[in-house]
Amino acid sequence: MSKLYYGVAYYDEYMPADRLAQDIAMMREANINVVRIAESTWSTLEPREGEYHFFHIDRVLDAMHAAGIAVIIGTPTYAIPAWLARKYPGIMVTTPEGQQKYGRRQIMDIVNPDFLRHAEIIIRTLLAHVKDHPAIIGYQVDNETKHYDNCGPVMREKFIRHMQETFGDTDAMNRAWGLDYWSNRIDDWQDFPPPESTINASLACAFSRFQRRCVTEYLAWQAALVNEVRRPDQFVTQNFDFEWRGYSYGVQPRVDHFAAARAMTIASVDIYHPSQRHLTGKEIAFGGDMARGMKGGGNYFVMETQAQGFAQWTPFPGQLRLQAFSHLASGAVMVSYWHWHSIHNSFETYWKGLLSHDFAANPTYREAATIGADFRRLAPHLADLRVTNDVAILVSNEAMDAFNAFKPQGTEGNAYNDVVRRFYDALYEENISVDIINDVNDSSARYKLILIPALYAAEDALLHRINAYVEAGGKALIGFRSGFSDEHVKVRTCVQPGILSRCCGVRYSQFVLPDGAALRGAALPLAGSATQAEMWMELLTPEGADVLAYYDHPEWGSYAAVTENRYGRGTAIYVGCLPHGDLIKTLVRRLGGEALCSRQSAQGFPLVVRGGLNPAGERVRYCLNFSGEPQAVTGVTGRDLLTGHDVGGNWDLPPWGVAIVVSQP
Amino acid sequence: MSKLYYGVAYYDEYMPADRLAQDIAMMREANINVVRIAESTWSTLEPREGEYHFFHIDRVLDAMHAAGIAVIIGTPTYAIPAWLARKYPGIMVTTPEGQQKYGRRQIMDIVNPDFLRHAEIIIRTLLAHVKDHPAIIGYQVDNETKHYDNCGPVMREKFIRHMQETFGDTDAMNRAWGLDYWSNRIDDWQDFPPPESTINASLACAFSRFQRRCVTEYLAWQAALVNEVRRPDQFVTQNFDFEWRGYSYGVQPRVDHFAAARAMTIASVDIYHPSQRHLTGKEIAFGGDMARGMKGGGNYFVMETQAQGFAQWTPFPGQLRLQAFSHLASGAVMVSYWHWHSIHNSFETYWKGLLSHDFAANPTYREAATIGADFRRLAPHLADLRVTNDVAILVSNEAMDAFNAFKPQGTEGNAYNDVVRRFYDALYEENISVDIINDVNDSSARYKLILIPALYAAEDALLHRINAYVEAGGKALIGFRSGFSDEHVKVRTCVQPGILSRCCGVRYSQFVLPDGAALRGAALPLAGSATQAEMWMELLTPEGADVLAYYDHPEWGSYAAVTENRYGRGTAIYVGCLPHGDLIKTLVRRLGGEALCSRQSAQGFPLVVRGGLNPAGERVRYCLNFSGEPQAVTGVTGRDLLTGHDVGGNWDLPPWGVAIVVSQP
Amino acid sequence: MSKLYYGVAYYDEYMPADRLAQDIAMMREANINVVRIAESTWSTLEPREGEYHFFHIDRVLDAMHAAGIAVIIGTPTYAIPAWLARKYPGIMVTTPEGQQKYGRRQIMDIVNPDFLRHAEIIIRTLLAHVKDHPAIIGYQVDNETKHYDNCGPVMREKFIRHMQETFGDTDAMNRAWGLDYWSNRIDDWQDFPPPESTINASLACAFSRFQRRCVTEYLAWQAALVNEVRRPDQFVTQNFDFEWRGYSYGVQPRVDHFAAARAMTIASVDIYHPSQRHLTGKEIAFGGDMARGMKGGGNYFVMETQAQGFAQWTPFPGQLRLQAFSHLASGAVMVSYWHWHSIHNSFETYWKGLLSHDFAANPTYREAATIGADFRRLAPHLADLRVTNDVAILVSNEAMDAFNAFKPQGTEGNAYNDVVRRFYDALYEENISVDIINDVNDSSARYKLILIPALYAAEDALLHRINAYVEAGGKALIGFRSGFSDEHVKVRTCVQPGILSRCCGVRYSQFVLPDGAALRGAALPLAGSATQAEMWMELLTPEGADVLAYYDHPEWGSYAAVTENRYGRGTAIYVGCLPHGDLIKTLVRRLGGEALCSRQSAQGFPLVVRGGLNPAGERVRYCLNFSGEPQAVTGVTGRDLLTGHDVGGNWDLPPWGVAIVVSQP
């Protein structure tokens, strides 16, 4: 579309007074060119069953159109009206903690027929009303949809039916899941126990996968409703979010992003991240790489990110610019703030928008205005960036569920994402940009290096394809516990790391916790933090592989910790514990990291260099300083689009500064 | 009444054997002159429905009267009999955790009609039985009453009806509370959702306020029953308690003390506090100042305080005396221990009374006997102390609810009380005694200084009255987040600190967390702990005010942290973060603290000087040593009532020692 | 039986493929001579109600018998089939957290008639099927049985009936339990409130005791079913486990081991313990001493202990041997691993067996094979060890419940066991082996020293018997809070430590927390860690006793902390706080510890020496090195059975090494 969108979520409904004209004037001043409206406003649209009001929708659409600001319509279903919850008590989702009470958003049962019937009515009614409005550039279905830990009766019945289809008879299921254990056998489908209280991780992970499948189906169903009215030039999207640790952290456990994105014409994501002294750009990069990945490499929208946000996020001067351009550096074509104005009542009063509660221009708004101007001015150079990598990292919801079902002692929360981010962050700090993938297959030959962290559960075929990738000349860095169980989370009965033993040339049958152990370099000299061993410790015995490091431990010192194996024309490094980022960097360098196309700079964090090629074929490199000190840049030569000056040799980026250097590729 | 009461709670019901004569002999030996009986003994009074037994009541009343010991009758309703709970299962309170099971006290639904009907019967029956007994000096209704987090069906219906009366229609409520947000609109009263699960703090705070109103009504209802039989010389009181942190800490969130005390002829309070090495007298002073405040300045009863209490409270030699006189120093006219004997079974077995489980005289009892003797001997000098202050601190249940609904990240528990106590304690340590008030109005002109911590939610009129107080010559020290929202907890849409911007001459629209920031003195030199900034950090811009301190921070260093503004004939200091006690002391000094009448000594903690005028017009100063080291006293001249010796110049208080110095005013 | 059993739990049911022949071959190679089967396999035995399958049972029995491996049959009741839970929803246990959902084991209501009826049918059916098989050497009833915090309707009704029988009328109960307090009186049995929500510890502890009684009855009922078919040479046992802290820690709160073991012909126990750097042998010794104690001193089975276990337990080379022989050193005649193979699905996937998931020989299995060979070779010397001690430690489930109901502030979890283990571990570290007893009576005269930690609740008669034991010449080391309450957890109204004041010659009525206090030696010089005072601090006044130590504290320094009293021909030391292990060792030495027969070595931990006499009358001493460094052994002379060499003088044990020295007694 050769355009950069700079936007905000806008809620005319929430305004304490009529602000529309003033707001639009301030938006125009800041070069805001898109607003998202209507998501989460069901009770305003339909205050009583069957009674519809389009007052806010109509006036915003008209006013925005008049001002040249594009509009995204969100379907309003992710927060339900009080009347709906009262009339159909079954709509409130039942989770392992019991049925939820009305109040929060995102606590409905998305497979409940009453909910779906009413959702369909309000969606169809809204779409019919707005579909011809010229302001609308596209639709967002629902918002940050998840399954909300739904274990209600409808979900349960659907799951059991799905298992019947999957296994045919209960015997096959008993075998796959090992249900003989602790008398958990099921010999009649009607005896199927509550999935949420099972102690069988095979059953629990199958249920978790099925819950994600319901999210995929729900979003596809909404997208299909939109598709009935959508013009070809309009998009349909969903605003995907990530594992939340007070900010966007890792792979989303409750949605299969790759599957759910299929029904969308473009991916959108929520990216919230630490700021101030804690701003690193890692979440911006990770979220963007995931967003590209879910649609197989295209551009994406940052549908929500923070303007001021929480008190701990209010950006330092310069950081809002740094953040905005960091999004573009990963391939975003929209940066949209949640939200325009700070809300005066309720849950997100302290999740501040671009404007504070007083609606006046403030330092953050004024900085946004410079971004808007730059977006408009530089869109021809910056829009539709093509990001191409020869490094990928393999993630898997199934591996996550299984890994986390059997977390090492002393590990808290979503340990899988801890591991994934350990590998991801090391590459980020090395300025090696990556694709995030959920499969290794024929098309993976385009990668020189694939990182495979914590691939705990995987079907045989995927492991064989990984072997084939290496055999054909690929390089792989494979993390501990990979290959351990099959797709039913049944531990393999062969030697570990299972089928991957072949490409890795290593085996083990025992593992311990580090408890004071470290690494001792062998073929690879190691020092400092690179010698740390965390979380897990497989007692590896090479079978053909070279030992890069042993454990440094009085009793386990003869076991290998890191091995390297030539397999076919490729190489696989296997790591039996959670390595420090410094060791990951060392291993990636050993696997040819310096020569990768993905490596955008020989420098490293806090100087971050990311980018790609623009439609004109120019190389665009975003030079981003994630620190409060000036940083010298070397090896980046070209014209800085922001200043218009040529740069080259050894030049300086100011604190929290950004430069966008174009050059011929 | 020109009398000091020294008392105990007495439970003949709980005695493992008949001890009455022995107990009374020991009480007389200790000059115990009042006992409280009957509260919490419903099941003994009415072991089966409609079957009444006054055995214990009668014999205790008669025996005490014969011994010249006065009796307070407590209505027995704060713990219900098992038969009542079984017969009317709805009486057990429903809280957000569900309906409570029988066992503990204070878990009944105080708006349940069945409970109220039975409570009325037992109260009327008891009162009719005892009303003419000459031993009785007054009545206590219920005990430590609160709403017990009641969100049961009756409470809920009453709340909705009250909101109907308050708002008239749902639209007004939707606007006031911002219910459009997240589709929370209510367009039909029957759709009103469960208040306990709302994410709308406006609704939640309105519900909390209503729950407190039910406590007020319940206590007034019991007081009215008492008033039907009460003689004019008898009092009716309620034993109010405080926010509990294992001891009496701060403003009680579940009762509006000021409103509830109106139905009482005198206020009583529970004061439990750390002891041994941790005894500071702060809770004694705070609880006493609150107790005076709730009845607009009069004397009060300490209806419960610890004798031995928990193992961690067993007083050091001397501390029981220090505590007793500390109560008098704040205006108490009764010090009554909970309780006489230590209880041999159940929950409070380790909440020991004056006697241990063996009923023998012990060191604590023997020290009490010296207190009783002193109380009797010195009552003419010490009773009915008039405590007058020219400093006040403004507290508000509504501000508390609202502040705590939006606690700064990293803050735990009742943060409002953390802030209030930070201000209160600094004054206490400076020997500046205060009134605790819940309004600023015309009568506030008697204060030279008002401290206003964390007044997060307040109606416009109160803020205007604060402005007027300053304009007319008052001095105010106003803490962060004051003025931020209106009485519906809707954030004001004007510049912050809202209406208080006028008297403070300062504005802000952004705030962050300190995260390493400190304060840097400007017009006011600052050093040491006074430079600490905690909890919150408003980025202040003066609009007329002088900057007393800036933030010491690489990015926010140009924003003010503490400002001072002349407004009319007065001065307002505004502090944008949670200040250290040392800064509060510095600011109070700057506002003329040295010259305040409330400042009773130029010395400070651990030497505490508090007091007032006695009915004879003498100045009575309690000199209290809250340390295990002797403390020199200066500037206190007069006669020490305890020793009969004159003191003056520079004299010594022994460890944990007390002197009561009378002088002409 | 002159035999040592070396075994594994074996689950043919859980095998992913037919492994029986291979497994038996590997077992024989390792000299495994017993397997336990069938426990927890109800759903395989009876996949649908009334439909029985003995496939796995039959083939394992036959194959084991053919291989000369003995079999223990477990009744399968501790995990129920899904069909049973679905058909009788009441079978799922109701705990204070509500009714449990199907999934885990050990969540049935063991007093539910439906459960009992179906349990009886499956037990009888299984027994009838297998009873004549020659492989079977005995039966285990259920497994690790407990009451599962059952407070369901049946349990409650049974409890009330039992209280009716105990007290006759409610008045006696009201008095014993002090129910007048907080209106908790019960004047009609039908008003009996839910025991699980009571705040009356007398009631709560009576309920806890009753719950244990139900376990005793349940196990006796199963044993009676077994006894109907059991041959005289077959045993019936139950696998008892201990308070669990991630490993077997202390006295089991939910079973009265002494009472429940009466229905068994031999005691079996579960012993899991820290390993690797954290292996001390303490849990092995404690669990073994308890196991001997429950049957009054005989040999016992270690029915379950870890082979590889968790990742943090995988044994260092040598540790599996050290562990196995440590069990024998306490009198075990069976060491059986849970379990043979590691399980591929479900909850205990990471609780690894002797084999890893790949079924291949691994270092742990190979070490086990050496143990099996030694067991076989040395059984004539090592089986049926007679362990005789002149030191005992008194434990009590009733004291535990009561002590923990009134835990000192700051104490978490099962504080009673913390105290018991403090005393136990000090003796263990001194190589003083002990009997664990639950009564002091005429037969206690065989002990020279009895340790009595935390005997908080006890009937008068027991305390009188303790006095009599001392009077007759015994020595006692009595810990704080002993004697404090009666068997109804009513605090005694006499001077403390109650009836024990007589033998201890000391009294107190006040107690505090240490909060910085230490001990100051008086008649006994103290230094270093022996001066520590923890948890509790009774302010002791000697009445005839000598003061061994005072408190070191500015205010409480005149009170005694440790006293010693001659009483009759014996001596009692009383300690008013939780002493450090070093003080316990000092006090035990003072009480003649060096001369005790139980003292097996003048050396101490990590060199552990334990043992007894074998049937041939030889003295067998296990010398166990619980450290990663070699340890010199002195004072142990004889022939090392493992090497066949004579040892004597000063000789070395290797890291984690073991020697078994036989000599004439």
TrEMBL record, chains A, B, C:
InterPro entries named in the record: Beta_galactosidase_C (IPR013739), Beta_galactosidase_Trimer (IPR013738), Class_I_gatase-like (IPR029062), GH (IPR017853), Glyco_hydro_42 (IPR003476), Glyco_hydro_42_N (IPR013529), Glyco_hydro_b (IPR013780)
Residues reported to bind Zn(2+): 151
GO annotation (BP), single: galactose metabolic process
GO molecular function list: beta-galactosidase activity; metal ion binding
Superkingdom in the source lineage: Bacteria
Family: Belongs to the glycosyl hydrolase 42 family.
Keyword Phosphoprotein: no
Enzymatic class: hydrolase
EC number: 3.2.1.23
Protein name: Beta-galactosidase
Domain spans labelled Beta-galactosidase C-terminal: 620-661
Catalytic activity: Hydrolysis of terminal non-reducing beta-D-galactose residues in beta-D-galactosides
Taxonomic lineage from the root: Bacteria, Pseudomonadati, Pseudomonadota, Gammaproteobacteria, Enterobacterales
Glycoside hydrolase family 42 N-terminal domain sequence ranges: 10-377
Binding site for substrate: 105, 143, 313
Active-site residues per Swiss-Prot or TrEMBL entry: 144, 304
Sequence ranges assigned to domain Beta-galactosidase trimerisation in this UniProt record: 390-595
Pfam family membership, one: Glyco_hydro_42M
Keywords linked to the UniProt accession: Glycosidase, Hydrolase, Metal-binding, Zinc
CC terms in the record's Gene Ontology section: beta-galactosidase complex
